[in-house]
Amino acid sequence: MNRLFWTVTLEGQPPVIGSIPAEGEVRINIDVPSGTIKAITAHLYCPMEKTEKAFFNGYQSWSWSPEVVRDDRQRGVDHIPKLLLKQYSFDRYGDYHFWKYPRKKGCFHGYSYGYIRREESYRLFASLDERLGYTIFSYDANTGEMTITRDCAGVRHPGGVLSAFSLYFAEGTENSVFDGWFAAIGCRPRTSKKLAGYTSWYNRYEAITEQDVRNDLAGCCDLMHPGDLFQIDDGWEPHVGDWTKPDMEKFPGGMKALSDTIHESGFMSGLWLAPFVCTEKSSVFRNHPDWLLKVEGKPWKCGCNWGGFYALDIDVLAVQEYLAGVFDRLFTKWNFDLVKLDFLYAAAPFGTADESRSGRMYRAMELLRKWCGDKLILGCGVPLMPAFGLVDYCRIGCDVSLDWDDVLYMRAFHRERVSTRHSLDNTLYRRQLSGRAFGNDPDVFFLRKENCKLTPAQKKQLAETNAQYGQVLLISDDPSSYTEEMRREYERVRGMWDKEL
After folding, report:
1. What is the DSSP letter of 198?
2. Helix/strand/coil (H/E/C) assignment for every residue in 61-93
3. What is the pTM of this model?
4. What is the distance between the alpha carbons of residues 194 and 64, in angstroms, rounded to a whole number?
5. According to the model, what pLDDT value does residue 438 have?
6. Domains of the chain
């Protein structure tokens, strides 16, 4: 039986060291004086054979998380010229600003859970609670050494019992180990209902208008089923961060009229927003600099979308009041049924002296749940475990691209980039979360020929993988352009999806 050797160190205190069998639920609670946590680590010998494969869950929902073999390599962003990193903030989408990627084959790391698999037998290692800090599993397949780190260095502990680690180890079939893990967490999904429908993003992207939405809605009426989702994605707002009214040039009739029309067509209405970020053009950024999350005195830039965008500070009461009002308007005045909440990782790129970054992420997700009440949430761009049981549906991969793997130069960048190939990997290898943590959203599939470079075989693979492993099944085409053959293919894929899960 393998043993877990652990060490807990507080500033100015001698380390506390111990070991415990690595089997089943492993909870390491120790009595410590008050002080600042310096490090909490554990070590486990966990050899991996050449014929085995392993999975390490990426930092957030977009992070590419495939199964790997011993000679594979995880790449960070340290190969990107610093000038490009500074200009485009590629290091802000994932964990690159706080975790060092070793440039060595056979070295991997992941968050909250992972496994080593020999055919149908799984060795699962997982966290039971991430509030004290993300549980980071760092593995060297060359030596078989696994280092487990609590991401909570610098957090003050008031003294008394410290829950250093809450871990779960199991070996068996896929269903047995994942069922056991979620039973130990005590987590249940908020809904078992599957969700099919349409989203406006993957055709016109931000260049949508009210008339575009109405045209696509008319096409959906002849294709989709009663109760399906019709979701308006990014492009309705004047600027990212300004959510109190639509862009009146593009949406002169307002959002309530659109939501009412969607309902009259027999569908649920959905709306996209990114609640924890804003762009420089937004009134939020221009008029409320005190709302921005500051790191070393400067606003924290979260990435290069929309020319660059910045995180809001969820600890500012005015930010909470603003967002509470936004959600109240979306649900009670505009009458939407579902919100797709995106770029959620921006809420917690750092922790504080009193709270780890994962504790902050949990708190942000709980705020969203409170503001949304019983309305449906589709989470996106979010660290996964803090979303367990709090969102109804969750994207579990990156955005699909209109080709197989995006343009060549983008393939050298971060693990969160747009890619149909990467999206398919995440749909397959995060499948165990669906129906346990939330309903998995694998992103859209395509049937159209225009404005899409996927081959017929690639479209079929994408559609069938989404249907087999997703609880959400969305298109982004204008169905009025579908041929009879495309309509038959839609019904075939939907029939496959209806039978799965």
Report:
1. E
2. CCCCCCEECCCCCCCCCCCCCHHHHHHHCHHHC
3. 0.96
4. 24
5. 98
6. 3-185 (no CATH), 195-271+313-499 (3.20.20.70)
